[in-house]
């Protein structure tokens, strides 16, 4: 597996675009740096994941959350169209990175918002896509067209869980963690019909971003302080790596938000 | 009913987006019809549906369209075309190619929204107030230089009024005007409608000509007024003059209404009546001073029923309340017809057509005249919703009052 990460060189709470963010509750730059390095070490050394880096850019504190940059499909990079103006400038930097490495950069039409892997996740052969808060449903049609796969749209209905990757975590074919209250009733039905084994996460651990985990085979990295999820995952033979990510929680992000999948297989 | 066509495509079946959109339409109080649906054969194939959404008002339709748009249902392109606007080149002049209105419910597409045109009126233009998000009919003499006027037909939607399926087998009898109509049934139906409107606190307009007084039907109109069946009266100088002549001298055009006799010097009575009222300062003053003690206008004043008297070129006097500037009379009438639910027009051609021109087609309109040509004229000039009764007005009103079981006044 290959992931793209961005060092938190300019990371900070400079604006408020989700309920987690508060400029009066600043992140500690040194601690953020240490937490990010620790996560990278877990990924590369414990989970045997190859991590590539994109250079951080001043003025784009959220570039650290690379999962929102776009969606990679084979040698195509579907670039995001961020809902909020403050993040739109990130796209040029991500697009350049992918173009320089031989990827075809695909842009969606101007009239729809799309926040990349933050809202599109694959569970076995089925793709799920969140909409309403950050991505528009129209974007899903384009994505489905580009990847040539069925994409099931799920309405997200809780602003605290604004991206699909904050409330849904595929663990492998037919199995996923999810926080049920983040979905509208139709989305819940769709999940139940399409994921054989759905493991619900309680509010406390969902709010610790238990669903925002990085899964590679049988190993999984997530924020610390999620003992119930950890126990359940271990019972399913997963090797769980809890790593402190409290500084990133202040911006409404955690492990999965900090990494974009470039390739599922190394 | 206002309606719009939307399209939705994608993996809308497995993701339950199509049922969600349809449920939403119903939940919000609108209706839908699926015009076309294509379901993908393989999992990766997208499905497609074209849906007609209908709502009771343009406002509700807009709410529904905005809501389902969030779930991917988009109005088809031609539906989304905006209306074209041009400023009026001068006061009292519409831009070339202005959209000429009908009296049907109309909405206009402005800035991505359907706006209901306030108070539909035929033969006007549509004026748009963008900041206020308001569309209204404006008659040519009221337009001001720079007013934004709709030109062409693009972005204008007219909703036809549903017409009832005739209940009778004899088609000729359900035509709007026929001397062969079973009047008793029709009058009974009108009486039931009036009762319902009074019960619901709706407003009824009576438009009447002097023939109503000449035929001795004035007392029935008095009964309607006294029993709360009239909230507004439109007439000319003539109706008021002869009603007051009757109140003062017992005659109409010099003929005693109760004696089948022509009064001596009776032809002067209406002039003397005009003079008396002019000396008193007006009809209201003459009632207040106890000079007029009975009749249609006495009841109007006493019961607080609003009336508008519009003048014409052949008027004697006229009475002080008569508005002789026809454009001003039209504007006053236009203002007052707003909120009317039923218009009952009797024994008048001029005022019936003038009022018909101002009414939206949604206002129930009944036209009673001895001359079939009057009803035909009214409908030919666009007031197609009018139901015509060809009969002398006195037996009509007598029978109507009978069905209404009015108490003696």
Account of the protein in words:
The complex is a heterodimer of chains A (266) and B (409). Helices cover 27% and strands 24% of the residues of chain A. Chain A is an alpha/beta fold. In chain A, strands 2-1-15 form a 3-stranded mixed beta sheet, with helices on one face. In chain A, strands 3-4-5 form a 3-stranded mixed beta sheet, covered by helices on one side. Chain A has a 3-stranded mixed beta sheet with strand order 6-7-8, sandwiched between helices. In chain A, helix 7 (227-235) links the parallel strand 13 and strand 14. Chain B is an alpha/beta fold and 409 residues long. Chain B is 33% helix and 23% strand. In chain B, the strands form 4 sheets. Chain B has a 7-stranded mixed beta sheet, with helices on one face. A 6-stranded parallel beta sheet of chain B has the order 16-13-12-17-18-19, with helices on both faces. In chain B, strands 2-3-1-4 form a 4-stranded antiparallel beta sheet. In chain B, helix 3 crosses helix 13 (393-404). The two termini of chain B are 43 Å apart. The model of chain B is unreliable at 163-175 (pLDDT under 50). Classes of the chains: A alpha/beta (266), B alpha/beta (409). The A-B interface holds A 132, 137-138, 140-141, 144-145, 148-155, 186-187, 189-190, 193-194 and B 9-11, 14-17, 19-20, 43-44, 46, 70-72, 74.
């Amino acid at each position: 597996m290959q992931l793209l990460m961005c060092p938190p060189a300019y990371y900070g709470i400079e604006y408020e675009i989700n309920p987690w963010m508060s400029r009066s509750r600043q992140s500690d730059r040194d601690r953020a740096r240490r937490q990010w390095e620790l996560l990278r070490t877990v990924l590369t050394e414990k989970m045997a994941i190859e991590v590539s880096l994109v250079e951080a850019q001043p003025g784009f504190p959220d570039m650290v959350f690379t999962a929102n940059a776009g969606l990679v499909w084979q040698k195509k990079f579907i670039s995001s169209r961020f809902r909020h103006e403050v993040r739109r400038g990130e796209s040029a930097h991500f697009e350049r990175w992918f173009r320089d490495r031989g990827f075809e950069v695909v842009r969606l039409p101007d009239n729809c918002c799309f926040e990349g892997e933050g809202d599109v996740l694959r569970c076995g052969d089925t793709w799920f896509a969140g909409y309403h808060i950050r991505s528009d449903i129209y974007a899903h049609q384009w994505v489905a067209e580009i990847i040539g796969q069925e994409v099931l749209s799920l309405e997200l209905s809780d602003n605290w869980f604004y991206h699909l990757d904050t409330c849904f975590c595929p663990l492998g074919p037919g199995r996923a963690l999810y926080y049920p209250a983040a979905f509208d009733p139709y989305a819940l039905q769709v999940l139940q019909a399409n994921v054989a084994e759905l493991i619900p996460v309680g509010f406390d651990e969902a709010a610790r971003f238990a669903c925002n985990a990085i899964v590679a085979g049988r190993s999984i990295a997530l924020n610390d302080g999620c003992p119930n999820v950890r126990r359940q995952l271990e019972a399913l033979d997963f090797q769980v790596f809890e790593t402190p990510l409290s500084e990133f929680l202040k911006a409404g992000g955690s492990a999965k938000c900090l990494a974009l999948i470039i390739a599922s297989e190394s | 009913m206002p309606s719009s066509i939307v399209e939705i495509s994608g993996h809308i079946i497995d993701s339950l987006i199509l049922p969600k959109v349809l449920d939403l339409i119903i939940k919000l109080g609108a209706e839908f019809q699926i015009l076309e649906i294509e379901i993908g054969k393989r999992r990766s194939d997208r499905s497609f549906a074209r849906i007609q959404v209908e709502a009771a008002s343009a406002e509700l339709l807009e709410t529904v369209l905005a809501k389902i748009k969030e779930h991917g249902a988009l109005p088809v392109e031609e539906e989304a075309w905006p209306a074209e606007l041009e400023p009026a080149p001068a006061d009292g002049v519409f831009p070339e190619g202005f959209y000429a209105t009908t009296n049907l419910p109309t909405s206009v597409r402005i800035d991505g929204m359907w706006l209901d045109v306030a108070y539909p009126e035929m033969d006007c233009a549509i004026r748009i107030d963008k900041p206020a998000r308001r569309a209204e009919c404006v008659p040519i003499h009221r337009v001001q230089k720079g007013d934004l006027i709709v030109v062409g037909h693009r972005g204008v939607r007219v909703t036809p009024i549903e017409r009832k399926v005739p209940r009778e087998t004899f088609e000729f009898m359900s035509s709007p005007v026929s001397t062969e109509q079973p009047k008793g049934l029709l009058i009974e139906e009108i009486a039931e409608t009036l009762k319902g409107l009074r019960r619901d606190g709706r407003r009824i307009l009576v438009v009447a000509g002097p023939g109503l007084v000449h035929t001795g039907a004035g007392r029935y109109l008095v009964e309607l007024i006294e029993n709360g069946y009239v909230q507004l009266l439109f007439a000319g100088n003539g109706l008021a003059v002869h009603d007051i002549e009757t109140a003062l001298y017992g005659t109409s055009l010099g003929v005693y209404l109760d004696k089948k006799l022509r009064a001596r010097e009776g032809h002067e009575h209406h002039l003397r009546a005009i003079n008396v009222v002019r000396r008193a300062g007006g009809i209201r003053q003459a009632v207040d001073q106890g000079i007029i003690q009975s009749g249609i206008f006495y009841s109007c004043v006493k019961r607080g029923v609003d009336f508008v008297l519009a003048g014409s070129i052949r008027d004697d006097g006229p009475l002080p309340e008569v508005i002789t500037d026809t454009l001003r009379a039209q504007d006053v009438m236009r203002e007052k017809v707003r909120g009317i639910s039923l218009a009952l027009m009797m024994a008048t051609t001029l005022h019936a057509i003038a009022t018909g021109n101002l009414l939206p087609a949604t206002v129930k309109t009944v036209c009673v005249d001895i001359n079939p040509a009057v009803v035909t004229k009214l409908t030919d000039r666009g007031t197609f919703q009018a139901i015509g009764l060809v009969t002398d007005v006195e037996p009509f009103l007598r029978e109507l009052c009978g069905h209404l079981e009015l108490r003696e006044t």
